[in-house]
Amino acid sequence: MVAWPKRRREDGLTNAAVLVPLIEREQWHILLTTRTKHLRRHAGQVSFPGGRADEQDKTPRQTALRETYEEVGIKPEFIEVAGVIEPYLTVTDFHVIPVVGFVQPDFSLTIDEGEVAGVFEVPMLDICDRSNYQRKKIHWQGEWREYWEFMHQEHRIWGATAAMLYSFAGRLSNVKSLL
């Protein structure tokens, strides 16, 4: 087991964690962010709140909760962690652990405008309908790569975020079939 807080792992990957924030309103939603356009990595893209592990983080849970608070101001006491889903390895060499958490709906946002351009919610019914996802190709760094894309209103959700949502939707459909 690789130590969590180490920024650059022996295998060359960087540990990161994101929160998959589930919010119950009239129906269940997942909160997503739009990153600012000036960021060095993933500028303007839709993402979960989260980021790379810091030295103080001992677990992916701590990273996800800390990053969520820093980016959108949702305090950890408003989040009940349910568990994690399978890690995702990005083409930019991040080992991302998606941490699923139930967020109390009466939270308030304090957006870090240096990192986050906006916040929006997507109904779980839309996320769980896997027919909403399309497989796309892009030529990147000299080779063709496939990725998932999911459109929600004017938001293009693609790459790692769409892949994690697609995987999560598959897990939920598997659970539903067992009931």
How would you characterize this protein structure?
This protein is of the alpha+beta class. The protein has a single domain, classed as Nucleoside Triphosphate Pyrophosphohydrolase. It has 3 helices and 11 strands, in the order ββββαββββαβββα. The chain has helices at 60-72, 124-128, 159-178; strands spanning 14-24, 28-35, 46-47, 50-52, 79-84, 88-89, 94-103, 116-123, 133-140, 143-152, 155-158. Strands 1, 2, 3, 4, 5, 6, 7 and 8 form an 8-stranded mixed beta sheet that branches. Strands 9-10-11 form a 3-stranded antiparallel beta sheet. Strand 1 and strand 2 (28-35) form a beta hairpin. The radius of gyration is 16 Å and the shape is globular. It starts with 13 loop residues before the first strand and ends with a helix. The mean pLDDT is 89.
CATH superfamily: Nucleoside Triphosphate Pyrophosphohydrolase
Number of DSSP strands?
11
The number of domains is 1
| Fraction of helical residues | 10-25%
Mean pLDDT comes to 89
Gyration radius from CA atoms, angstroms = 16 Å
CATH architecture: Alpha-Beta Complex
CATH class: Alpha Beta
Structural class comes to: alpha+beta
Specify the number of helices.
3
Essential attributes:
3 helices; Nucleoside Triphosphate Pyrophosphohydrolase; three-stranded antiparallel sheet; alpha+beta; eight-stranded mixed sheet; 179 residues; globular
How is the topology of this model organized?
Layout: E1 14-24, E2 28-35, E3 46-47, E4 50-52, H1 60-72, E5 79-84, E6 88-89, E7 94-103, E8 116-123, H2 124-128, E9 133-140, E10 143-152, E11 155-158, H3 159-178
